[in-house]
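Final report, Chapter 2: Outcomes

The project's central promise was a pipeline that accepts a single protein chain and returns its three-dimensional structure in a standardized token representation, suitable for archiving and comparison. That pipeline is now operational. To close this chapter, we reproduce one record exactly as it appears in the project archive, with the input sequence first and the structure output second.
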Amino acid sequence: MKKIKIAVVTGPTATGKTAFAVRLAAELDGEIISADSRQVYRGLDIGSGKDIGEYTLPSGRSIPVHLIDKVEPDYPYNLAEFMRDCHAAVASIHERGRLPVICGGTALYLDSILRSYTLRGGAPDPAGRQAKRELSTEELRRLLADREPGSEILKREPDNRIRLIRRIEQLEENPDQALLRSANELHPEYDFLVLGTLRTRAELHRRIEQRLDARLADGMLDEAVRLHEQGVSWERLEFFGLEYRYMALHLQGKLTFQEMRDQLLIKIRQFAKRQDSWFRNMERNGIPIYWFSPDDFEAALSLTRQFLAGQPLPEPEFRLSETFYGPRSQ
């Protein structure tokens, strides 16, 4: 059986992935599949960086994009549903003779498709979920610590009740592992080319700060107010993390505007570091990533044409695992 060829565009936040993927899709008759855990929600626009305008070319032609604005903010969209929807989008795009271009920085979503995760367990038990909601946050922490000592959620978000409960449910559904991978092998039906957008560390820090200030100026806080007025709870907004978490804290009077802005800037930079860890692990686990400056689009396009033509590809010239996150200098 001939494998479906897929181009993947990924990289740390604020490196220009979307614009890069749109150019690639425009050149190669492709359609984009978003691999972003927040852009799937309607109304989470500025804070999630949907940048819908980037999908329209200067000529006025629009590049089709899938898995954006798919569900309402109160819907508990999960990894299993993303996998189902992404595989369906790949099949649909391929059947129409076009190139699937998966674009996003949610590394778990990307890895689940590249490696074809196997998920076990059914839907959470409503009675069990309600019982957990009645527990104190401290009791939830103890419950999770008993099931998963050293849990990353306990380290990063010990006060996020929604994520504490969901992680406990995952571990109850799958006592051995909430996520199982297929023998660490790549998806047997797909042939991937993974392209990464990369900036120097100083440039990335600068872009993250400029983007945050631009989004605040463009009405990101108004977006959070509107979502809350439409019925999205503060707790739910905090669940979405980063921008939405800190805006919710500010709007509840727990942080001043300046505290929100400064703490959020630190958290986004830390998020870029965590993304780096994922990408380095992907490389170490056998997934070659070809890193490019977004300004070096023609080289990336040439490599993608080689890939689509079935020609042998060179080894990546650069491995992210050799750096902290992004090269320190040019």
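Archive annotation: The chain has 13 helices and eight strands.
This record, like all others produced under the grant, will remain available to the consortium after the project formally closes.
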